[in-house]
Design a protein that fits this description.
The protein is an alpha+beta fold. About 30% of the residues lie in helices and about 30% in strands. The chain contains 3 helices and 4 strands. A 4-stranded antiparallel sheet has the order 2-3-1-4.
């Protein structure tokens, strides 16, 4: 499996809209296994997004699609700036 972890800051008052977008995405993205969002205790405006795909190929196909670019633009409007992305292979637990 493969995916990304993103650190982001949500704009004040935009959290509910971000949740709505995230819920819509779960049913639209081929190859996506799961997504999780953590909100930090020390700073509720700081979020960490974890997204898991079946493979690197599925992740890349999504990342390079026009549909994902449109979803990203919607999400970006709700954030204070672009997310900090960290892509990689899921190695634990092993398959």
């Amino acid at each position: 499996m493969y995916g990304t972890v993103a650190r982001m800051r949500v704009k004040p008052g935009a959290l509910e809209e971000l949740w709505r977008l995230a819920a819509e995405e779960e049913t639209q993205i081929a190859g996506m296994v799961a997504q999780y969002v953590y909100r930090m205790d020390a700073d509720p405006g700081e979020l960490y997004l974890v997204v898991i795909f079946t493979s690197r190929e599925a992740y890349r196909a999504n990342a390079e699609s026009p549909e994902q670019h449109a979803r990203y633009e919607q999400m970006l409007r709700l954030l204070e700036g672009p997310p900090e992305w960290h892509d990689g292979e899921l190695v634990f637990p092993p398959d």
